[in-house]
Write a structure and sequence with these properties.
The complex is a heterodimer of chains A (68) and B (159).
Chain A (H helix, E strand, L loop, with lengths): L1 E2 L1 H8 L3 H8 L3 H8 L7 H11 L7 E2 L7
Antiparallel strand pairs in A: 1-2
Helix pairs in contact in A: 2-3
Chain B lengths: L10 H22 L7 E9 L8 E9 L1 H17 L8 H28 L2 H33 L5
Antiparallel strand pairs in B: 1-2
Helix pairs in contact in B: 1-2, 2-4, 3-4
Classes of the chains: A mainly alpha (68), B mainly alpha (159).
């Protein structure tokens, strides 16, 4: 799964640490998601969508490998 | 994801402070077979002698030195505190690493057990069984903390 957390973060002009605080997770989790190493739970994904004020599909997109 | 089986994070330190001395003392009394007489007691036992023998005895009092029991329980409880206390920043990603490490530790522990089962015999194997009481959790602790420290290192940069 791809995500545009980094882009959304840049738009809002906040750091990983600030986003982590808003989303109530550790900065390592934000970092791991941005690097595509971790797929968040639905709850965390919804929190991010709310923080960035976008639809969840505006941040996360499925890739072909997600269907395998 | 909320994990309900975890202890508050300050218990991790308490766990280490109990685990290290009790593991060292436990190992020493095992090696030197130290049994101080003031810890000799008559204790209740479910089985006496052989479990499957015809003249098996059940539910009796037996004479026993309880030092190794005390240390065994101390080691297990403190290992649990170290293994299952929350990280300071416990969140869903840490939980995922926790579960993966736990699964890994179970696989690893039993892989080692199969090897020792095949290549270690008699009294030496008895020693393997003694250590095996604690190794699942110890392997978990090593693996989990290694993964967490790797995570902290990889996330130490920010653009």
């Amino acid at each position: 799964m791809k995500n545009s957390i980094k882009v959304e973060r840049a738009k809002k002009n906040i750091t990983q640490a600030e986003l982590a605080k808003l989303a109530k997770v550790s900065r390592q989790t934000i970092n791991a998601m941005e690097l595509g190493k971790y797929v968040p739970s639905t709850v965390l994904a919804l929190r991010l969508a709310q923080i960035f004020e976008v639809e969840i599909s505006g941040i996360f997109t499925l890739e072909d490998s997600d269907w395998v | 994801m909320k994990l309900n089986f975890l202890f508050p994070s300050k218990f991790k330190r308490i766990g280490w402070f109990t685990l290290i001395p009790s593991a060292i003392i436990g190992l020493l009394i095992l090696i030197y077979e130290y049994e101080p007489s003031f810890l000799d007691f008559n204790v209740p036992a479910i089985f006496v002698d052989e479990l499957f023998s015809v003249n098996r005895k059940t539910f009796r009092m037996v004479a026993n030195n309880i030092l190794n029991e005390i240390l065994g329980v101390l080691i297990i409880i403190s290992t649990f505190l170290v293994a299952f206390s929350k990280e300071k920043s416990e969140d869903e990603y840490i939980s995922k690493i926790r579960f993966e490490s736990l699964a890994w530790a179970v696989y690893f522990n039993y892989a080692i057990l199969i090897l020792t089962l095949l290549f270690i015999y008699d009294f030496a194997f008895l020693w393997v069984m003694v250590f095996n009481m604690f190794t699942v959790l110890l392997f978990f602790i090593v693996r989990f903390n290694w993964q967490i420290s790797k995570l902290k290192k990889s996330a130490s940069y920010e653009e």
